[in-house]
Amino acid sequence: MAAALAFATPDDDTGEDVLAAVREVVQRDLVPIVGQIDRDGFYPEDAMRALGAAGAYGRHLPGYGAGEPDLTAAFRAIAAAGEYCLSTSFCMWCQDAFAWYVWASDNAALKARLGEKIATGAILGGTGLSNPMKTFFGIETMRLKGRRVEGGYLVKGALPWVSNLGPDHWFGGVFEREDGRPVMALVSCAGAGVKLVDGGTFVALDGTRTYGIQLRDAFIPDGDILADPAEAYVKRIRLGFVLMQVGMGLGLARGCIRLIREVEGSLGHVNRYLDVQAPDLAARADALEREVETLAIDPFDPDPALWRRVVAARLAASELAVDAAHNAMLHCGARGYVVTGEAQRRLREAYFVAIVTPAMKQLKKMLADMGPDPSGAPGLAA
Ligand SMILES: Cc1cc2nc3c(=O)[nH]c(=O)nc-3n(C[C@H](O)[C@H](O)[C@H](O)COP(=O)(O)OP(=O)(O)OC[C@H]3O[C@@H](n4cnc5c(N)ncnc54)[C@H](O)[C@@H]3O)c2cc1C
User: Fold this and answer.
1) Which residues approach ligand 1 with their CB closer than 6 A?
2) Ligand 1 centre and the CA of 192: distance in Å?
3) Which residues are paired to 153 by β-bridges?
4) Which of 6, 16, 39, 108 is the most exposed place for a label (fewest CB within 10 A)?
5) What's the pLDDT tens digit per position in 298-319?
Protein backbone atom coordinates (compact mmCIF):
# COMPACT_ATOMS: atom_id res chain seq x y z
CA MET A 1 0.00 0.00 0.00
CA ALA A 2 1.10 3.56 -0.67
CA ALA A 3 2.02 5.66 2.34
CA ALA A 4 -0.22 8.63 3.25
CA LEU A 5 -0.06 11.21 0.48
CA ALA A 6 1.72 14.43 1.41
CA PHE A 7 1.72 16.54 -1.73
CA ALA A 8 5.03 18.04 -2.80
CA THR A 9 4.72 21.67 -3.81
CA PRO A 10 6.45 22.62 -7.05
CA ASP A 11 8.05 25.69 -5.46
CA ASP A 12 9.97 23.65 -2.91
CA ASP A 13 11.19 20.82 -5.06
CA THR A 14 14.01 20.83 -7.59
CA GLY A 15 14.10 18.22 -10.35
CA GLU A 16 16.68 16.31 -8.26
CA ASP A 17 14.40 16.27 -5.20
CA VAL A 18 11.55 14.97 -7.33
CA LEU A 19 13.72 12.23 -8.83
CA ALA A 20 14.89 11.07 -5.40
CA ALA A 21 11.28 10.97 -4.14
CA VAL A 22 10.15 9.13 -7.27
CA ARG A 23 12.90 6.52 -6.86
CA GLU A 24 11.76 5.95 -3.29
CA VAL A 25 8.14 5.39 -4.36
CA VAL A 26 9.29 3.08 -7.17
CA GLN A 27 11.25 0.88 -4.74
CA ARG A 28 8.57 0.89 -2.04
CA ASP A 29 5.30 0.73 -4.01
CA LEU A 30 6.16 -0.51 -7.48
CA VAL A 31 9.01 -3.03 -7.41
CA PRO A 32 7.05 -5.50 -5.20
CA ILE A 33 4.10 -5.61 -7.63
CA VAL A 34 5.71 -5.63 -11.10
CA GLY A 35 4.90 -9.34 -11.59
CA GLN A 36 1.27 -8.77 -10.58
CA ILE A 37 1.00 -5.86 -13.02
CA ASP A 38 2.38 -7.99 -15.85
CA ARG A 39 0.66 -11.32 -15.21
CA ASP A 40 -2.68 -10.16 -13.78
CA GLY A 41 -3.07 -6.87 -15.63
CA PHE A 42 -3.15 -5.12 -12.25
CA TYR A 43 -3.40 -1.31 -12.56
CA PRO A 44 -0.95 0.28 -10.07
CA GLU A 45 -3.28 3.05 -8.95
CA ASP A 46 -1.78 3.50 -5.46
CA ALA A 47 1.71 3.82 -6.96
CA MET A 48 0.42 6.28 -9.60
CA ARG A 49 -1.10 8.48 -6.91
CA ALA A 50 2.00 8.21 -4.68
CA LEU A 51 4.18 9.23 -7.64
CA GLY A 52 1.92 12.25 -8.13
CA ALA A 53 2.25 13.16 -4.47
CA ALA A 54 6.04 12.89 -4.87
CA GLY A 55 5.89 15.58 -7.59
CA ALA A 56 6.41 13.31 -10.62
CA TYR A 57 3.70 15.01 -12.75
CA GLY A 58 4.27 18.65 -11.83
CA ARG A 59 7.75 19.90 -12.67
CA HIS A 60 7.30 20.12 -16.47
CA LEU A 61 4.12 22.19 -16.41
CA PRO A 62 4.31 25.79 -17.68
CA GLY A 63 2.93 28.15 -15.06
CA TYR A 64 2.59 25.54 -12.32
CA GLY A 65 4.86 26.72 -9.51
CA ALA A 66 7.86 28.97 -9.86
CA GLY A 67 10.53 28.61 -12.50
CA GLU A 68 10.62 27.37 -16.07
CA PRO A 69 8.91 24.11 -17.08
CA ASP A 70 11.41 21.30 -16.47
CA LEU A 71 10.70 18.61 -19.04
CA THR A 72 13.85 16.72 -18.04
CA ALA A 73 12.38 16.12 -14.56
CA ALA A 74 9.30 14.45 -16.08
CA PHE A 75 11.45 12.46 -18.49
CA ARG A 76 13.70 11.22 -15.66
CA ALA A 77 10.75 10.24 -13.47
CA ILE A 78 9.22 8.24 -16.35
CA ALA A 79 12.60 6.55 -16.88
CA ALA A 80 12.98 5.76 -13.15
CA ALA A 81 9.74 3.74 -13.21
CA GLY A 82 10.58 2.29 -16.64
CA GLU A 83 13.71 0.64 -15.21
CA TYR A 84 11.33 -1.76 -13.46
CA CYS A 85 7.92 -1.61 -15.16
CA LEU A 86 6.93 -0.21 -18.54
CA SER A 87 3.19 -0.31 -17.73
CA THR A 88 3.70 2.20 -14.92
CA SER A 89 6.20 4.19 -16.94
CA PHE A 90 3.63 4.50 -19.76
CA CYS A 91 0.81 5.41 -17.34
CA MET A 92 3.10 8.14 -15.98
CA TRP A 93 3.68 9.41 -19.50
CA CYS A 94 -0.12 9.39 -20.07
CA GLN A 95 -0.60 11.45 -16.90
CA ASP A 96 2.25 13.81 -17.81
CA ALA A 97 0.83 14.36 -21.31
CA PHE A 98 -2.68 14.89 -19.92
CA ALA A 99 -1.31 17.50 -17.46
CA TRP A 100 0.83 19.03 -20.24
CA TYR A 101 -2.29 19.60 -22.39
CA VAL A 102 -4.10 21.46 -19.61
CA TRP A 103 -1.17 23.63 -18.51
CA ALA A 104 -0.08 24.49 -22.08
CA SER A 105 -3.59 25.61 -23.05
CA ASP A 106 -4.99 29.16 -22.86
CA ASN A 107 -8.03 27.96 -20.93
CA ALA A 108 -7.32 29.66 -17.58
CA ALA A 109 -10.65 28.61 -16.05
CA LEU A 110 -9.96 24.93 -16.82
CA LYS A 111 -6.48 25.22 -15.29
CA ALA A 112 -7.96 26.82 -12.16
CA ARG A 113 -10.65 24.12 -11.93
CA LEU A 114 -8.59 20.94 -12.57
CA GLY A 115 -4.95 21.91 -13.09
CA GLU A 116 -3.55 21.38 -9.59
CA LYS A 117 -5.43 18.10 -9.07
CA ILE A 118 -4.04 16.76 -12.35
CA ALA A 119 -0.50 17.97 -11.57
CA THR A 120 -0.53 16.11 -8.24
CA GLY A 121 -2.21 12.92 -9.48
CA ALA A 122 -5.38 13.50 -7.46
CA ILE A 123 -7.18 13.36 -10.83
CA LEU A 124 -5.77 10.72 -13.18
CA GLY A 125 -6.16 10.60 -16.92
CA GLY A 126 -4.75 9.89 -20.33
CA THR A 127 -4.49 10.95 -23.91
CA GLY A 128 -6.30 9.83 -27.06
CA LEU A 129 -3.92 11.52 -29.45
CA SER A 130 -2.71 8.51 -31.40
CA ASN A 131 -5.35 8.94 -34.13
CA PRO A 132 -4.91 12.74 -34.50
CA MET A 133 -1.09 12.44 -34.41
CA LYS A 134 -1.34 9.92 -37.25
CA THR A 135 -3.91 12.09 -39.04
CA PHE A 136 -1.70 15.22 -38.87
CA PHE A 137 1.13 13.20 -40.45
CA GLY A 138 -1.01 11.73 -43.26
CA ILE A 139 -1.47 8.16 -41.98
CA GLU A 140 -5.12 8.02 -40.80
CA THR A 141 -8.27 10.14 -40.86
CA MET A 142 -9.88 11.69 -37.81
CA ARG A 143 -12.09 9.24 -35.90
CA LEU A 144 -13.99 11.70 -33.68
CA LYS A 145 -16.46 14.16 -35.24
CA GLY A 146 -17.97 17.15 -33.46
CA ARG A 147 -21.06 19.27 -34.13
CA ARG A 148 -21.44 22.76 -32.67
CA VAL A 149 -24.42 23.16 -30.29
CA GLU A 150 -25.37 25.72 -27.67
CA GLY A 151 -22.51 25.93 -25.11
CA GLY A 152 -20.22 23.28 -26.61
CA TYR A 153 -20.00 20.36 -29.03
CA LEU A 154 -21.73 17.01 -29.49
CA VAL A 155 -19.01 14.47 -30.35
CA LYS A 156 -19.35 11.00 -31.83
CA GLY A 157 -16.89 8.31 -32.90
CA ALA A 158 -14.62 5.67 -31.39
CA LEU A 159 -10.95 5.24 -30.45
CA PRO A 160 -9.60 1.69 -30.19
CA TRP A 161 -7.25 2.24 -27.22
CA VAL A 162 -6.82 4.91 -24.57
CA SER A 163 -4.81 4.11 -21.42
CA ASN A 164 -4.68 5.23 -17.78
CA LEU A 165 -8.48 5.48 -17.64
CA GLY A 166 -11.21 4.64 -15.15
CA PRO A 167 -14.76 5.74 -14.42
CA ASP A 168 -13.59 8.99 -12.79
CA HIS A 169 -10.64 9.67 -15.10
CA TRP A 170 -10.32 12.10 -18.03
CA PHE A 171 -8.47 12.14 -21.33
CA GLY A 172 -7.37 14.68 -23.90
CA GLY A 173 -8.74 14.13 -27.40
CA VAL A 174 -9.17 15.82 -30.76
CA PHE A 175 -12.36 15.88 -32.84
CA GLU A 176 -13.05 17.31 -36.25
CA ARG A 177 -15.85 19.81 -36.84
CA GLU A 178 -18.10 19.56 -39.88
CA ASP A 179 -15.96 22.24 -41.61
CA GLY A 180 -12.82 20.11 -41.07
CA ARG A 181 -11.43 22.25 -38.23
CA PRO A 182 -9.77 20.16 -35.46
CA VAL A 183 -10.68 20.99 -31.86
CA MET A 184 -8.85 19.64 -28.81
CA ALA A 185 -10.69 19.09 -25.53
CA LEU A 186 -10.74 17.16 -22.30
CA VAL A 187 -13.27 14.34 -22.13
CA SER A 188 -14.59 13.06 -18.81
CA CYS A 189 -15.01 9.27 -18.72
CA ALA A 190 -18.05 9.91 -16.50
CA GLY A 191 -19.69 12.20 -19.09
CA ALA A 192 -23.06 11.36 -20.69
CA GLY A 193 -22.56 9.54 -24.00
CA VAL A 194 -19.00 8.42 -23.08
CA LYS A 195 -18.52 4.66 -22.86
CA LEU A 196 -15.38 2.69 -21.94
CA VAL A 197 -15.31 -0.73 -23.60
CA ASP A 198 -12.98 -3.72 -23.30
CA GLY A 199 -9.81 -2.99 -25.30
CA GLY A 200 -8.73 -6.67 -25.48
CA THR A 201 -5.82 -8.43 -23.75
CA PHE A 202 -2.28 -7.42 -24.67
CA VAL A 203 0.95 -9.44 -24.49
CA ALA A 204 2.34 -6.78 -22.14
CA LEU A 205 1.23 -3.38 -20.83
CA ASP A 206 -2.02 -4.97 -19.72
CA GLY A 207 -1.89 -3.16 -16.37
CA THR A 208 -2.39 0.20 -18.06
CA ARG A 209 -6.21 0.31 -17.86
CA THR A 210 -6.44 0.59 -21.63
CA TYR A 211 -10.01 0.84 -22.93
CA GLY A 212 -11.77 1.35 -26.20
CA ILE A 213 -13.66 4.65 -26.16
CA GLN A 214 -17.08 5.17 -27.70
CA LEU A 215 -18.57 8.63 -27.89
CA ARG A 216 -22.26 8.81 -28.78
CA ASP A 217 -23.19 12.47 -29.03
CA ALA A 218 -21.12 13.12 -25.92
CA PHE A 219 -21.52 16.75 -24.87
CA ILE A 220 -18.18 18.56 -24.51
CA PRO A 221 -18.83 21.93 -22.85
CA ASP A 222 -16.89 25.01 -23.98
CA GLY A 223 -15.28 25.03 -20.53
CA ASP A 224 -13.44 21.79 -21.35
CA ILE A 225 -11.99 22.96 -24.67
CA LEU A 226 -8.17 23.07 -24.75
CA ALA A 227 -7.78 24.67 -28.18
CA ASP A 228 -10.20 25.65 -30.97
CA PRO A 229 -8.81 25.56 -33.61
CA ALA A 230 -6.19 23.02 -32.48
CA GLU A 231 -3.47 23.03 -35.18
CA ALA A 232 -1.14 25.66 -33.68
CA TYR A 233 -1.68 24.27 -30.18
CA VAL A 234 -0.85 20.69 -31.27
CA LYS A 235 2.39 22.00 -32.83
CA ARG A 236 3.13 23.72 -29.50
CA ILE A 237 2.65 20.60 -27.38
CA ARG A 238 4.15 18.00 -29.73
CA LEU A 239 7.80 18.37 -28.64
CA GLY A 240 6.95 17.65 -24.99
CA PHE A 241 4.55 14.85 -25.98
CA VAL A 242 7.22 13.02 -28.00
CA LEU A 243 10.28 13.82 -25.90
CA MET A 244 8.79 12.57 -22.63
CA GLN A 245 8.16 9.19 -24.30
CA VAL A 246 11.92 8.76 -24.66
CA GLY A 247 11.92 8.23 -20.87
CA MET A 248 10.05 4.95 -21.37
CA GLY A 249 12.65 3.56 -23.77
CA LEU A 250 15.59 4.84 -21.74
CA GLY A 251 14.27 3.44 -18.46
CA LEU A 252 13.56 0.08 -20.02
CA ALA A 253 17.06 -0.04 -21.53
CA ARG A 254 18.63 0.79 -18.16
CA GLY A 255 16.63 -2.04 -16.56
CA CYS A 256 17.91 -4.44 -19.24
CA ILE A 257 21.51 -3.30 -18.72
CA ARG A 258 21.05 -4.09 -15.01
CA LEU A 259 19.80 -7.60 -15.89
CA ILE A 260 22.85 -8.18 -18.09
CA ARG A 261 25.17 -7.04 -15.28
CA GLU A 262 23.37 -9.20 -12.70
CA VAL A 263 24.29 -12.40 -14.57
CA GLU A 264 27.88 -11.36 -15.30
CA GLY A 265 29.19 -13.18 -12.20
CA SER A 266 27.69 -16.55 -13.05
CA LEU A 267 27.54 -16.40 -16.87
CA GLY A 268 30.18 -13.82 -17.83
CA HIS A 269 32.67 -16.52 -18.92
CA VAL A 270 30.39 -17.38 -21.84
CA ASN A 271 28.29 -14.21 -22.19
CA ARG A 272 31.44 -12.29 -23.13
CA TYR A 273 31.25 -13.94 -26.56
CA LEU A 274 27.95 -12.20 -27.32
CA ASP A 275 28.18 -9.28 -29.75
CA VAL A 276 26.53 -6.69 -27.52
CA GLN A 277 27.70 -6.06 -23.95
CA ALA A 278 26.39 -3.87 -21.15
CA PRO A 279 28.89 -1.01 -21.80
CA ASP A 280 27.77 -0.81 -25.46
CA LEU A 281 24.15 -0.34 -24.42
CA ALA A 282 25.08 1.99 -21.55
CA ALA A 283 27.01 4.26 -23.94
CA ARG A 284 23.95 4.53 -26.19
CA ALA A 285 21.69 5.17 -23.19
CA ASP A 286 24.01 7.90 -21.87
CA ALA A 287 24.19 9.59 -25.29
CA LEU A 288 20.40 9.52 -25.60
CA GLU A 289 19.94 10.95 -22.12
CA ARG A 290 22.35 13.82 -22.86
CA GLU A 291 20.54 14.52 -26.14
CA VAL A 292 17.15 14.70 -24.38
CA GLU A 293 18.53 17.06 -21.75
CA THR A 294 19.63 19.39 -24.56
CA LEU A 295 16.40 19.11 -26.53
CA ALA A 296 14.25 19.69 -23.44
CA ILE A 297 15.67 23.14 -22.66
CA ASP A 298 12.89 25.07 -24.45
CA PRO A 299 9.94 22.75 -25.13
CA PHE A 300 8.05 25.50 -27.00
CA ASP A 301 10.85 26.39 -29.43
CA PRO A 302 9.25 26.00 -32.92
CA ASP A 303 12.60 25.50 -34.73
CA PRO A 304 12.11 22.69 -37.32
CA ALA A 305 15.73 21.56 -36.81
CA LEU A 306 14.97 20.98 -33.11
CA TRP A 307 11.82 19.03 -34.02
CA ARG A 308 13.84 16.80 -36.34
CA ARG A 309 16.26 15.97 -33.49
CA VAL A 310 13.32 15.20 -31.18
CA VAL A 311 11.86 12.77 -33.75
CA ALA A 312 15.30 11.17 -34.19
CA ALA A 313 15.73 10.83 -30.41
CA ARG A 314 12.32 9.16 -30.13
CA LEU A 315 13.31 6.71 -32.88
CA ALA A 316 16.63 6.03 -31.12
CA ALA A 317 14.68 5.27 -27.92
CA SER A 318 12.61 2.61 -29.74
CA GLU A 319 15.71 1.04 -31.27
CA LEU A 320 17.60 1.09 -27.98
CA ALA A 321 14.69 -0.43 -26.03
CA VAL A 322 14.27 -3.33 -28.45
CA ASP A 323 18.05 -3.94 -28.73
CA ALA A 324 18.57 -3.80 -24.97
CA ALA A 325 15.71 -6.20 -24.26
CA HIS A 326 16.82 -8.59 -27.01
CA ASN A 327 20.34 -8.66 -25.60
CA ALA A 328 19.15 -9.01 -22.00
CA MET A 329 17.28 -12.12 -23.16
CA LEU A 330 20.44 -13.54 -24.76
CA HIS A 331 22.55 -12.79 -21.68
CA CYS A 332 20.04 -14.14 -19.14
CA GLY A 333 19.28 -17.33 -21.10
CA ALA A 334 16.88 -19.82 -19.52
CA ARG A 335 16.50 -17.82 -16.29
CA GLY A 336 14.98 -15.07 -18.40
CA TYR A 337 12.83 -17.47 -20.41
CA VAL A 338 10.68 -18.81 -17.55
CA VAL A 339 7.23 -17.27 -17.06
CA THR A 340 8.48 -15.28 -14.05
CA GLY A 341 11.71 -14.27 -15.84
CA GLU A 342 12.32 -10.55 -16.06
CA ALA A 343 14.11 -10.66 -19.41
CA GLN A 344 11.11 -12.08 -21.29
CA ARG A 345 8.83 -9.49 -19.66
CA ARG A 346 11.17 -6.67 -20.69
CA LEU A 347 11.31 -8.04 -24.24
CA ARG A 348 7.50 -8.03 -24.54
CA GLU A 349 7.37 -4.55 -23.04
CA ALA A 350 10.11 -3.21 -25.32
CA TYR A 351 8.04 -3.67 -28.45
CA PHE A 352 5.48 -1.28 -27.01
CA VAL A 353 8.03 1.56 -27.15
CA ALA A 354 8.41 0.73 -30.84
CA ILE A 355 4.68 0.55 -31.69
CA VAL A 356 3.00 3.18 -29.53
CA THR A 357 2.28 6.35 -31.50
CA PRO A 358 4.51 7.66 -32.94
CA ALA A 359 5.52 4.11 -33.91
CA MET A 360 8.91 3.41 -35.47
CA LYS A 361 7.31 3.27 -38.91
CA GLN A 362 5.67 6.68 -38.40
CA LEU A 363 8.91 8.21 -37.08
CA LYS A 364 10.79 6.92 -40.12
CA LYS A 365 8.06 8.37 -42.39
CA MET A 366 8.26 11.72 -40.57
CA LEU A 367 12.05 11.86 -41.02
CA ALA A 368 11.71 10.82 -44.68
CA ASP A 369 9.07 13.54 -45.25
CA MET A 370 11.47 16.14 -43.77
CA GLY A 371 14.08 15.25 -46.41
CA PRO A 372 17.83 14.90 -45.88
CA ASP A 373 19.24 16.32 -42.63
CA PRO A 374 20.94 19.60 -43.65
CA SER A 375 23.28 19.40 -40.63
CA GLY A 376 24.65 16.04 -41.77
CA ALA A 377 24.80 15.00 -38.09
CA PRO A 378 25.48 11.27 -37.57
CA GLY A 379 22.49 10.82 -35.21
CA LEU A 380 22.03 8.34 -32.39
CA ALA A 381 21.52 5.11 -34.32
CA ALA A 382 23.46 2.07 -33.15
C1 LIG B 1 -1.33 -1.32 -24.78
C2 LIG B 1 -1.67 -0.19 -25.70
C3 LIG B 1 -2.00 1.04 -25.15
C4 LIG B 1 -2.33 2.11 -25.98
N5 LIG B 1 -2.68 3.28 -25.40
C6 LIG B 1 -3.04 4.33 -26.19
C7 LIG B 1 -3.41 5.58 -25.61
O8 LIG B 1 -3.39 5.76 -24.39
N9 LIG B 1 -3.81 6.56 -26.44
C10 LIG B 1 -3.85 6.41 -27.80
O11 LIG B 1 -4.21 7.37 -28.49
N12 LIG B 1 -3.45 5.25 -28.38
C13 LIG B 1 -3.05 4.21 -27.60
N14 LIG B 1 -2.68 3.03 -28.17
C15 LIG B 1 -2.57 2.96 -29.64
C16 LIG B 1 -1.12 3.10 -30.09
O17 LIG B 1 -0.61 4.37 -29.80
C18 LIG B 1 -1.00 2.86 -31.58
O19 LIG B 1 -1.91 3.65 -32.28
C20 LIG B 1 -1.26 1.44 -31.95
O21 LIG B 1 -0.29 0.66 -31.25
C22 LIG B 1 -1.18 1.23 -33.45
O23 LIG B 1 -0.22 2.05 -33.98
P24 LIG B 1 0.40 1.85 -35.42
O25 LIG B 1 0.96 3.16 -35.82
O26 LIG B 1 1.30 0.70 -35.40
O27 LIG B 1 -0.85 1.58 -36.34
P28 LIG B 1 -1.23 0.24 -37.09
O29 LIG B 1 -0.95 -0.96 -36.26
O30 LIG B 1 -0.59 0.35 -38.41
O31 LIG B 1 -2.81 0.29 -37.22
C32 LIG B 1 -3.61 1.42 -37.22
C33 LIG B 1 -5.06 1.07 -36.86
O34 LIG B 1 -5.46 -0.24 -37.22
C35 LIG B 1 -6.48 -0.69 -36.36
N36 LIG B 1 -6.19 -2.00 -35.78
C37 LIG B 1 -5.14 -2.78 -36.09
N38 LIG B 1 -5.20 -3.94 -35.40
C39 LIG B 1 -6.30 -3.89 -34.65
C40 LIG B 1 -6.90 -4.78 -33.73
N41 LIG B 1 -6.38 -5.98 -33.45
N42 LIG B 1 -8.00 -4.39 -33.13
C43 LIG B 1 -8.55 -3.21 -33.40
N44 LIG B 1 -8.04 -2.33 -34.28
C45 LIG B 1 -6.93 -2.64 -34.90
C46 LIG B 1 -6.58 0.33 -35.26
O47 LIG B 1 -7.65 1.17 -35.57
C48 LIG B 1 -5.30 1.11 -35.38
O49 LIG B 1 -5.43 2.42 -34.89
C50 LIG B 1 -2.33 1.95 -27.39
C51 LIG B 1 -1.97 0.71 -27.94
C52 LIG B 1 -1.65 -0.34 -27.11
C53 LIG B 1 -1.26 -1.64 -27.75
Assistant:
1) 94, 126-130, 160-163, 202, 205, 208, 210, 355-357, 359, 362
2) 25
3) 148, 220
4) 6
5) 999 999 999 999 999 999 999 9
